[in-house]
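hey m, so remember when u said the tokens were messed up on ur end? i reran from scratch. heres the input so u can diff it against urs
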Amino acid sequence: MTFHEFISNYDHEGTIVLLEGKRAVTEKDKVKLISLSKLLAMNSRHIKFRSGNASGADNYFSKGFSGKNSSRFEVIVPYHGHRSYDSAGFDIINIEDIPLTAESTLVVQSKENRRNLRIFDAYIAGERNSMAYKAAYLLRDTLKVIGHSPNIPPADFAIFYDDLLNPKSGGTGHTMVICERNKVPHIDQKTWFNWI
């Protein structure tokens, strides 16, 4: 897919595009993530971009949307105040504001990809310790893709910065798997590096 094909296919009212990636970003790739975010902000009019507000790739992807483009960028956070210094001016969706039960689609899909299911049960039961917060991060990653009816639409497309030596690992890998299960098309830097 070329950049022009991406814009033609997705720059429509109501489209949500996920921008997400690894926390560890190589020094030479940092400028590429920022360049892509600026390219997307300048060459699209309707797409709303979504990220997880993590350090690393998520942070660099947000750089092109500061200022006049901030209304087209939203961050989904795992708890109130999460990295608020990097999300100023963006729309913020907090996983803590979403009512969850064990039967919620968000919880069910998050559990399908994990071994330690008790962390989700603990989080839903109201525990807020280091283990329960791991569930909050994974629920956030799932929410970024599938949304939550009626106010948070699902993603239509996802752009990732992955670790190409250890692909689909960690939270980024979890998000990619959720994309695949929900038939959300996605690319990584093997494609979008050619756009900049």
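this time it looks ok to me. The mean pLDDT is 91. if urs says something different then somethings off w ur setup not the seq
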